[in-house]
User: Which sequence fits this backbone?
């Protein structure tokens, strides 16, 4: 007998055994069919799916009666709980230890204000220092004072006059002609290094003989001219005016005030507060 024929016989035998088992021929209880399974349920006609529409009021039996119309003694449904009871039921109960701890917390601790954050603390103002700028020209003093006022700083301004040079000269003559006559006399004495001041002002028509940085050098020339017979020559100090600005401000603001002013930082010194 071939293998395929043997397999077919075995499959037929297995199917026959399975069919006999489903029909209860082998002694086992056959499985219930769908109508039988529904019939064994309690009140199968009351089973409704969620998607089914509710049954009509006419089809439902009167309240308090069974299917045959007999009156049924049923217990009254429990009363619905009040809203307050429902709300209290929804709150989870805390352990007694937790309740005792919450009751022990003082009211002042629970209501203590939150301390302010570090950023809310008032900032400390920058310390002020006294600075002074000396030896300024009138333009530099005006510019520096204007910048300080724009920064909200009060500035104190003062000026000093000091000799910047010493001038050897013959005093101004009454006219240009008289000055030229005096120059001719000086040439006759051998004095060549001179000129007549032309600028309008107190020194106009004066005869300049030399300008020196120090008074001692000016005196040396004056003695030489007198030795040659020059009369009425003398030494005059040429004054220059310098301005000083003093103010109290924060050290961080100094560089911004001095920005763009060449050489101004080298003339800044510390000073005593006003």
Assistant:
């Amino acid at each position: 007998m071939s293998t395929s024929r043997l397999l077919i016989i075995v499959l037929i035998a297995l199917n026959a055994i399975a069919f006999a088992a489903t029909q209860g021929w082998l002694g086992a209880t056959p499985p219930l069919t769908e109508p039988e399974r529904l019939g064994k349920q309690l009140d199968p006609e009351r089973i409704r799916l969620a998607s089914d529409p509710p049954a009509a009021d006419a089809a439902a039996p009167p309240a308090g009666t069974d299917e045959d119309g007999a009156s049924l003694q049923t217990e009254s449904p429990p009363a619905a709980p009040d809203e307050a009871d429902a709300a209290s039921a929804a709150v989870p109960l805390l352990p007694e230890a937790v309740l005792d701890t919450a009751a022990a917390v003082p009211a002042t601790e629970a209501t203590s204000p939150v301390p302010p954050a570090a950023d809310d603390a008032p900032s400390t103002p920058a310390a002020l220092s006294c600075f002074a700028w000396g030896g300024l020209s009138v333009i530099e003093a005006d510019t520096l004072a204007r910048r300080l006022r724009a920064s909200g700083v009060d500035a104190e301004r003062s000026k000093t006059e000091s000799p910047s040079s010493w001038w050897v000269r013959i005093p101004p003559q009454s006219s240009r002609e008289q000055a030229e006559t005096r120059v001719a006399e000086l040439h006759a004495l051998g004095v060549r290094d001179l000129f007549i001041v032309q600028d309008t002002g107190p020194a106009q028509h004066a005869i300049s003989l030399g300008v020196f940085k120090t008074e001692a050098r000016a005196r040396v020339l004056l003695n030489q001219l007198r030795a040659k017979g020059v009369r009425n020559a003398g030494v005059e100090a040429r004054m220059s005016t310098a301005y000083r600005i003093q103010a109290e401000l924060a050290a961080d603001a100094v560089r911004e005030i001095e920005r763009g002013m060449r050489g101004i930082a080298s003339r800044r010194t510390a000073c005593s507060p006003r």
Remarks:
- The first helix runs from residue 3 to 22.
- The first strand starts at residue 128 and ends at 136.
- DSSP finds nine helices and six strands in the chain.
